[in-house]
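Table 4 source record.
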Amino acid sequence: MDQLDLVCDGWLPLRRRNDGALLEVGIERALTEANAFAELVVELATQVPALLRQVLLPIVADAVGLPADRAEWLKRFEARAFNESERDQIRQYLAKNGPRFQAFGETPFAQAGELEAASGETKGAGLLVATEFTGNNVPLFGSRTEAEPPALTPAEAMRWLVHAHCWDTAAIKTGAKGDGKVKAGKTTGNPTGPLGQLGVLIPTGRTLYETLLLNLPIGPRAALGTPQWRRPPAGPDWDAVGYPDGLLGLWTWQSRRIRLIPEQTPQGVRVRRVILAAGDRMRELPEWEPHTAWKYDKPVGKSKAADRKPRRHVPGKAIWRGLEALLAVHQSDLESGSVETSSLLRQAADLRSDGTLPEDYPLRVEAFGMTYGTQSAVIDDIYHDLIPLPVNALQADAEVYGVLVEMTSQAEQLSRAINHLSADLRRAAGLDPIPWDKGQRPGEQLLHLLDPVVRRVLGHAGGLDDQRLEAVLLAWEQVAYRITREVADTVFAAVPESVFAGRRTGGEAESGSPSGLGDVERRLRRNLSTILQRAAAQWRAP
């Protein structure tokens, strides 16, 4: 049976920079030619952080080492590629650990090669695939049933394997031989994969090489720990609750015991059956987790310390709508509570503050998340967003920081103004306002229309002087006003004729709301003038 060698054989899908071609390459080529590739191109967005954390980043950190200080980071950044010495280190590292980078065999990559189910049964390979129907998991975007499991190529199976280690649901797992917690052939109480508990943030550069560098914390090598492939194969200690021994232990955490079962078919080797059991249980998320922002809950009772937790992404909400939290390099108090951005974005801010990272560098931030339902046993939604983020916006005293925070705040205020307009008109028609948690309110439609405008500003604000930034804000307010008026007009157009005379009860307008369309219109104009003050001043000028 053909073997898949992850070092040499193609399985990492990458887009080549110079011509946009899509290639599947092995680990060695992906890293030694990292400057020639733009990005990973995968079946599901959440595979990106899984492949970076479970494979590429720990290999680079363990083989070449973390940048010891900013000077070394700058030296690597200016090189724009691994130098020949670093390439040799990567090749030698992969050769030394080669037996652990095989897809199948005695010590298969990220698997328990001797794993057997207590029942002797295997499951369909769809158990690994987040978009497949398995058990109670019925994805909206899945068409295949559990009765016809997918026949995964070895490359597809390996990508979904590392994805499962990061994002798997907390559903009931197959009971493995030797696991004392098995009841009726199953185990319960398994948490989701580690990334399923985060709002993942990945700083992204122009090339795969720059993305790798942006995701390597600056610091001593002693804090790295050990990746899973340099430890003995996963053993039978099913009761242990552990803690990562360092960054590499965290990135390559084996949250499941998995075994792929390959078979020879007329189309080549395929994986149709798997065993997926409980794996390593993490006692708690390390406070040095680099790929998430944080929130601080208020102290409860006599406790004086705020509880620090990962900040999750809100499904359906563009990442720029939480921009102030994303830019919170130091702990900041917002209306929603205290927040702090990820340590890697704080590091980018430090690199910008001393001139190591150029002011006009086209940094992007990619966000990933997963929403689970029914005791975290099913996948309800997958979150993915990507925005440009000017590096000088990561400094709270920079002009561009204030511009971007003001712009996103204005967008939210305009959304609320449109929702107030809708509520006033519905009351005037004798109807209740649309509940905030039911149906789509017109403010959400407005934010959807403003989204490309905000992203355009984010992509061009870096490097502009104060005068040009002020001009950008004025232009933004003019466009935002036009789009808001268009949405408002559609809301007015839906009003029945009976509302034109206004509606009063006992001689007073209901609930202090405007009593007729004239009052409603005046209130909307007043709100727009308050929110968009630059545009309003221009309208009032001779």
